[in-house]
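1st attempt posting a full record on here, be nice pls
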Amino acid sequence: YIQSKRSVVDPNIGFLIQLKEWEEHLRYAGKTNQYVEVKKNTCTLLKAGEVPEYSPESAILFFSPTFCLLWQGQYCPSTQLELCSQIKTLAQKYGQAPSQSYFFSQQIPPLACLKLMYVAC
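the predicted structure (as tokens):
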């Protein structure tokens, strides 16, 4: 019926953005939070419910159903940060992580960053 009345569909940009947000919400609904910790160039995927230890030498990548957070410790080498960034990019590329991402450095402890993000989102 709709095609007979309107042969061309041309939604506005706001509607397309809402569709994309809803698609991401549906893709990650029901998934749990996940941490990846990189310390001494070793990458560790933590089990559900496990929280990484705060270490100024580490980088932590946090995946929630709605955003990614990359945290860098004060003495974290750039190679570890780059490894976390590559993991995040691959996870997003293959639909295993949401596209919205944030970066925090050592001034704010990682769990405080998460609390800020949950308040903001």
